[in-house]
Specification:
The chain is an alpha+beta fold. The protein folds into 3 domains: 258 residues, CRAL-TRIO lipid binding domain (Phosphatidylinositol Transfer Protein Sec14p); 104 residues; 101 residues, GOLD domain (Jelly Rolls, Sandwich). Helix content is 39%, strand content 20%. The strands form 5 sheets. A 5-stranded antiparallel beta sheet has the order 2-12-17-14-15, with no helix packed on it. Strand 8, helix 9 and strand 9 form a beta-alpha-beta unit. Helix 8 runs parallel beside helix 9.
Length: 542
């Protein structure tokens, strides 16, 4: 399901973006320190932007390779050398023509032999007739009549001789199979030049000057280390494969609803790349497994469906120098069947091979999360066969590091709740709000608190909170501004284990000015990162 194989890259270089010191009226306390700190912007991965597709940003040898590839492509398209010609059918026509010539020659020989025999047969009656004439000695008038009749007989012989020959030629013409005529027509079609060859909606004839052609060709060049001939052959094979498998119409095919949970597109990352999720755990269910991968036919259907999802993802891209032209791919190995299941292994191998050969450089980063123990063994075997370029795109996260790793690439607003983010397809609470995700760090063995002010009466405040790695004690309180009022317990203190995935959401409506305080107690030996957002809504009914 992944476009590329597996490589462990546990360490990620990160950078922290500077944020405003204005915390929006939110006071933060960490541990026993009296010092106040502003919420931080979440760390993101460094050096994650795509390689530039602008000509001015390319190195000299890269521009040269791109121009050479364009020249080869222009020549190949105009010379009708992109797709394989129907050589086999041409050979068949030639063979049939030779067979026809042999048949005609044989028939001519037969006719010659027949003529020879006929002549010999004709000579016998003539000799006998001459003998009779000699014996009877007819008079002069009878001889004259006989002489006049002879030309008629000779004319009849000629007509008789020519008639079978014409009939034979007509017969040979009638015996010519219809398929042979069709094949000749097909052979003529081979020579027609198609100048409208395109790939992912981008015309490939360089002289047309399509805006996206450089982006597409650079993908093939980068996949082959800017070796022009290798990139050109890869492109030709890919175009041939698409034609033979009718890939351009794959999006029109029926959707496999049973496979939708296995691969789906959801949101974008911090750089605007569409995110593709591959959920291997779906196949842990035996019924689903057999339905999707149980037979070779089913596996082929699954692979084609996976290609359909890739094409669907490409539809979301902007194949222009200034656009986003690759995907972020997440491979969730939680409850994955693993390499022991031969059907699963076979389908994945087939899908990976096709995607590698025909969709070069369409994955900006390949994240493997919830990695099980067997992954490392497989990786040790495969790693030596991978290029450094391929390895550099892979990031691996153990179960305890999933949310932390994903947040480097995907904002909390865009990260699904099952991975510790705040995004839920059926949740519209913050859909139309420009809420800000804030973050605090709670040191080991200390307590952190987040204060959310609620100053106007009848205000409803709603918040989301998640802790990366959890394993904390958590509680919520409303503290009135009036010191004589009592603190209200919004959420009793409770211990939240590391298996917690979804964020905590709660809301509170105040009857007096004050603040909601979210308290996180970190009794572990590691610091904890806490992410939260909130919104307020004034109620007109008091």
């Amino acid at each position: 399901m992944a476009v590329e194989e597996v490589k462990v890259e546990e360490k990620e270089t990160t950078t922290q973006m500077g944020g405003s010191n204005d915390n929006g009226g939110v006071e933060v306390e960490v541990g026993d320190e009296s010092e106040k700190e502003a919420p931080k912007i979440i760390e993101k991965s460094a050096s994650y932007k795509e390689e530039s597709n602008f000509l001015s940003d390319l190195k000299e040898f890269e521009r040269k390779a791109l121009n050479e590839l364009k020249e080869k492509l222009e020549e190949a398209i105009l010379g009708n050398q992109i797709f394989k010609k129907k050589v086999k059918k041409i050979e068949n026509v030639q063979e049939k023509e030779k067979e026809k010539e042999v048949v005609v020659e044989e028939k001519k020989k037969e006719k010659e032999e027949t003529k020879q025999e006929n002549k010999e047969e004709e000579r016998k009656p003539e000799a006998e007739e001459e003998k009779k004439v000699e014996e009877k000695k007819p008079d002069a008038e009878e001889e004259k009549k006989v002489e006049e009749k002879k030309p008629d007989a000779e004319e009849k012989k000629k007509v008789a001789e020519e008639k079978p020959e014409a009939q034979e030629e007509e017969k040979v013409e009638e015996e010519k199979p219809e398929s042979e005529k069709d094949e000749k027509v097909e052979v003529k079609c081979v020579d027609e030049v198609d100048k409208n060859i395109s790939l992912w909606g981008v015309p490939l004839l360089p002289s047309k000057g399509a805006e996206g052609i450089d982006v597409v060709l650079l993908k093939f060049l980068r996949a082959r280390d800017f070796k022009v001939n290798d990139a050109f052959e890869m492109l030709k094979k890919s175009l041939q494969w698409r034609k033979e498998n009718n890939i351009d119409s794959i999006l029109e095919e029926d959707v496999r609803a049973d496979l939708e949970p296995a691969v789906y597109m959801n949101g974008v990352d911090r750089e605007g790349h569409p995110v593709c999720y591959n959920i291997y755990g779906v196949f842990d269910n035996e019924e689903v497994y057999q339905k999707a991968l149980g037979t070779e036919e089913k596996r082929n259907e699954f692979v084609r469906w996976r290609l359909r999802m890739m094409e669907k993802g490409i539809q979301k891209l902007d194949l222009k120098p200034s656009g986003v032209s690759s995907l972020l791919q997440i491979n969730d190995l939680k409850n994955s069947p693993g390499p022991a299941k031969k059907e699963f292994r076979s389908a994945m191998k087939q899908a990976v091979g096709i995607l590698q050969d025909n969709y070069p450089e369409f994955v900006a980063k390949n994240l493997f999360i919830n990695v099980p123990f067997w992954y490392y063994a497989v990786n040790a075997v495969l790693s030596p066969f991978l290029t450094q370029r391929t390895k550099s795109k892979f990031v691996v996260a153990r179960p305890a590091k999933v949310t932390e790793t994903l947040l480097k690439y995907i904002s909390a607003e865009e990260l699904p709740v099952q991975y510790g983010g705040f995004k839920s397809e059926k949740d519209f609470e913050f859909a139309n709000e420009e809420s800000t995700i804030s973050e605090i760090t709670v040191k080991a063995g200390s307590t952190g608190s987040i204060e959310l002010p609620v100053e106007e009466l009848g205000t409803t405040i709603t918040w989301d909170l998640t802790v990366i790695g959890w394993e904390v004690n958590y509680k919520e309180e409303f503290v009135p501004a009036d010191e004589g009022s009592y603190t209200i317990i919004v959420q009793k203190g409770k211990k939240i284990g590391g298996t917690q995935e979804a964020p905590i959401r709660n809301s509170f409506r105040n009857n007096e000015p004050g603040k909601v305080v979210l308290i996180v107690e970190n009794a572990s030996s590691k610091k904890k990162r806490v992410l939260y957002r909130y919104k307020t809504k004034k109620s007109f009914c008091t």
